């Protein structure tokens, strides 16, 4: 089958590790998977009528050989942005970056939110992908099966701010979480703090593990123990509970670095409950730089995570992959920056 | 031309005020506009190759006769959500409501942001509408020409929270702004305040005018003058400047009702600068109930605007119109509710 026979089914298949001049045909995929050419075509085009087992076999064959659509005529000029749940505090910053780039390229953005319990994933995989977006930016952490289904349909994707370990060949855009954590702790050390606690995230969130390790690296370099750590949910409530725990100890810390801004707002509440003034009695550093970090009292010193720029970069990368370009770099982290506001000061500044 | 001849061009045209059993044909539209049938079809399908003047004439003829696509087969199972600029503080609440309903209906959501200076509007009208979404929810305030272009393509739309005057036949979903403004002022009056100021929005924002009128109605009913009003931008900076003006007067108010929460946060800043305590020295009420209204210190008493429910309702209405159903009600306002938190108290509560 050639492109001239059926433009809808036309894809150029390219060996991942073999000779780029010898494109893999749909026929070869069909033979390798032991199915008919129309069956492969159905899988690639996301149409129904293929048994789950057969589909999996075809997807495996396609993934093994690798391929990309390269015909510009086949492009839909649509891309997809995928969330598990869109978060109040930072969803807009991500969407704004994606929209900006899509607008420049005249590409429409399909926004998908899986919702509570990721209820829409099944629908998304089965139906939505038949729209054949040119590419995809995913804030949702897709599992390997879902990534394979995208690959089998020749839809390139970029993972936004990965929270779990990804294979090396999965394109992603994140932030320099380790450097950010280190920078937060160094700022507090530079102010003269010695008892610096960290409220860390629950186990298993990769970006937050990097923040914790950055904090530890800075403590190490300064000869501090770096073991004044309490784990808590990444919420205001989590931050408040953890801070109350830390501040009720006999050797209470003079500074707390929270794994995100929401936790830091919880630290504010804990300090208020204990009658402690920020930053006179306690310095606080957050991570994220949410729009409201500047609105709380006192304005929060925090690590700025460039969410909009990350979304811009992820979208540019995804669109380039969608055009069939090879990316010079499949994974990258954009630099975080320390925003010094009013929640940090030398220990006992006015006392 | 009948639907059997060309499914792509098939539309059922229906007189707006005439006999619903006698659908208007494309041929009738063509005759009325003095153009060929293919030209009408091009306009309806958003294709190029029609001079601007001709296009306008065809659109006028279609608008005059009215029509709706009623063939379910022609549906794209896509809808479009349109913003001028997506706002940090409430964009997600709107998107979440739209996504929830779209998910239930298995409909994909195309998200369009016109961006600064509405730069993408031209692109949107010319190109994006050729995607033929089944319907549209627009937070952007489209002008009459843009609404006519949508109508001419048979794409029903619902205006979200209109800020400008709309003709009676334009479907919209808003909030009970007048009742909300009245409720805010009544709450303060009930606490015993007599000098209640309002920070109003700049002229020309319809929803805010309704809030102001609600405030005045409550003041009237209580025998208060209701003329302690300063206009300001709907921003924190606007609120701060207006509050400093009000609070530096010899007869400073004991309570301020701000036209939105951002202004109210500005009032907090002004109070802080003047060493006034909220709510002991000053009561503050906002409007919107942004996610951070509960996070500031003290948590803000405000009028809850049910943005997510409004988006749900707008989307359900738009999808019903997209299915060719006649809406029993084309415009509606969802009820606001007073959220009493900690920023309001009787005047001089502890003094």
From TrEMBL, chains A, B:
Keyword DNA-binding: yes
Record keywords: DNA-binding, Transcription, Transcription regulation
Domain HTH lacI-type: 24-78
InterPro entries cross-referenced by the UniProt entry: HTH_LacI, LacI/GalR-like_sensor, Lambda_DNA-bd_dom_sf, Peripla_BP_I
SMART domains with a match to the protein in the record: HTH_LACI
GO terms, molecular function: DNA-binding transcription factor activity; transcription cis-regulatory region binding
This protein's name: Transcriptional regulator
Natural source organism: Micromonospora sediminimaris
Lineage, highest ranks first: Bacteria, Bacillati, Actinomycetota, Actinomycetes, Micromonosporales
